[in-house]
Design goal:
This protein is α/β, with parallel strands linked by helices. It has 11 helices and 8 strands. It has helices at about 1-10, 10-20, 30-35, 50-70, 75-95, 105-115, 130-140, 155-165, 200-210, 230-250, 265-270; strands at about 40-50, 95, 100, 120-125, 145-150, 170-175, 190-195, 220-225. The strands form 2 sheets. A 6-stranded parallel sheet has the order 1-8-7-4-6-5, with helices on both faces. The chain has a two-stranded antiparallel ribbon with strand order 2-3. Helix 4 (about 50-70) runs antiparallel to helix 5 (about 75-95) and helix 5 packs parallel to helix 11 (about 265-270).
Amino acid sequence: WGERFWRKHQSQEDLSLAKKIVRPFILRRTKEQVLTELPEKIENHVYLNFSEGEHENYISTLTKIKNNFNAVEKKNKYSEVLKSLLQLRQMCLWQKSSTLHSTKVDFLIENLEQLLEEGHKVLVFSQFTTYLDIIQDKIREHSWKFAAIDGTQTMKKRQSQVQFFQEGDAQVFLISLKAGGVGLNLTAASYIFLMDPWWNPAVENQAIDRAYRIGQENKLTVYRPIIKNSVEEKVLILQNTKKELFKDLMATDKDEFFNGKLTMDDFTELLT
């Protein structure tokens, strides 16, 4: 309701009034203002093309999803959209028929070969533990040393993995996005790969902040590989659209107040 109200009444006069109302309750300082000693941070969206087989499979699945969606009763559309989005997002990460196909894993491994040879340490984030397992298998094939955490580990195990990366021989740290979003100090990293986009950019920023914090001495480079002409591009558009309201209201380019809530219209737009 709140978003619909502001979409309807977001004249300059209304926004100015809203800013005046919230200003006494909000004290905002960006990390750049407070931690001026932090090194440079560079963020890159890298657009990748599906292989021919991946693309054909994706389009075929999308067509089936659209046909099924039109036939679903209204009361069941929300759950159907969620299930469909999950399927499409995972297809951007990996597809498996007789063999495993993943344009993104190929991109990651190709970059790791160069970065690890140069002595860099790398964080790899994904929301899907199955996908991290696939990446882990590829890393083992190259005999690279790695650490890994997910939501199932004890605090003691998590800390030992952090220490192995920060002070030990681990060159790569595989982390589930939500498990590694807070409470970790991973300043040994100089590169980050966010393998799948999420519609709440604040969650991604929390992950990046595991490395971009006091103690970081290296320039930090962040890569977000995105599959062209897929649901992932739609997610990026949605990120920007949904946080425009908060940017206007808070008079800032930051997104800490973006709550990530989506409407049914948002969900269905992702499937178009």
